[in-house]
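quick one, 269 residues, struct below
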Amino acid sequence: MNKKLYCLTFACSLFAIAQAADNATITIQPNTEYKEQQVITEGVLTLTLEEFNSNKYGDDYTTQSTTTTTDAALEGSDIANAGWLVSLAGSANPKKDATGANGTIPNNGNYWKVSTTEDGYITIGVVLNAQKPFWIVYEKDGEVVAASSASDNSLTYEGFKSEDKVYANYDFAATAGTTYYVYCNGSKLGLMGVKYSSTIESTNDDSDNNSNNESSDNGSEEGGTITAITTNSADQINENAPVYNILGQKVDKNAKGVLIQNGKKYINK
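---
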């Protein structure tokens, strides 16, 4: 092979590997057949659809459009710009053997397994029914551990409940080679998609609306803690839009902490 051509090919290969490590997205697609036990890999990211109901192995998952929903929970939620178009759900509640999963690692029913071959950050877009305990757990040193929010590491995905049905993104720091189990107890957790990023800044994709945003001059996101605030310009803000906390729960606009309104995060001290 020509030396120059070889060098160019090698450089392109390295670039492709670097790109794969920086970002990977698995999006649920319309008019696509999904089966339980199906494994989907994109770059460094792997998603497994872990529905298994005794002799019903191979059952179809059900897809539902999130673009045609009239559910008020979708309005103002932080998935508005994430690119999720369709959600996916199985047919049986997640269980550990014959009981509800509820903080354990489930072994049958509707739950999602996510892993990455690189350390980084994972964002998972879900449809969570009201009053259903939501979990992201993994195994460490023989114990089941709840994953923490990458945006606010004081929060853990440890059976919290939403007062209302929500469409939301949840992000967490992910370790290479670790499998994360995502589900809600007593219900079928809908999945819209999964994203991997090597940096926390790109876990939630608001790129489509960046031209309408104004960012603060003093601040950045470091170490999984939000220190920068991005808001809509004044003519874009609907002051009566519902307000959500980082867990996707609807809250009063005077609530303290990281809040989401009009699809944007801000800090209310």
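The radius of gyration is 19 Å.
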